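Bit of a strange request maybe. I'm writing a small parser for structure token strings and I need a real example to test against, not something I typed by hand. Could someone generate the tokens for this chain?
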Amino acid sequence: VNVSDNTATITWEAPAGATRFEVSVTDGTNTTTAEVTTTEYQVNNIIQGINYGVSVRTMCGDNFYSDAEVSYFKDDCTVNVSVNDITYNFAVANWIPANGIKYTYTLAGGNGTIDSVSPGQLNLTGLDEATEYTLTINASCGSNSIRTFTTKRLNFETKTSGDFDSDETWLYGEAPEGNVANITINEGHEVAVYHD
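Reply from user aminoacidic:
Good idea to test on real output. This should exercise your parser:
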């Protein structure tokens, strides 16, 4: 049995001359039975953390079967989270969500808001710049994932040129693409700086 991304693929060796098989899969409550003519059967939408049993019998005629070969499998309920697109005040967390599993989230380290965009994606907004955060995602099946990331710093500096009046300032620095940095300089004058 090979389990991956909420799907289990069951394979077996056929006895000589066997061409029909009965496959039964149970989660302890519900059982699904199918007749197949290959030595492979796929179970979709399995729920992480649930023990499944599978049995395969060779069909030797219309109403005759061999003894069942029985095995068990379980999706391991692992939450593999990645944090990407990190800027000075924003990040995105992604993972592959499992069927039937509920998730809770916590963010520690500084200011910030968790916005659930879709199953398996969180937007982390309103973050503090140059701050280390810890994102914890807990799954109802008992697994959790902890990721630490650091937001970027807006490295701005001001330089005054002798070629200009003393109250005129040159502003140098970088802002993450697509973002605007609002900075107050020179007695409350507000300047919007765009990234090229």
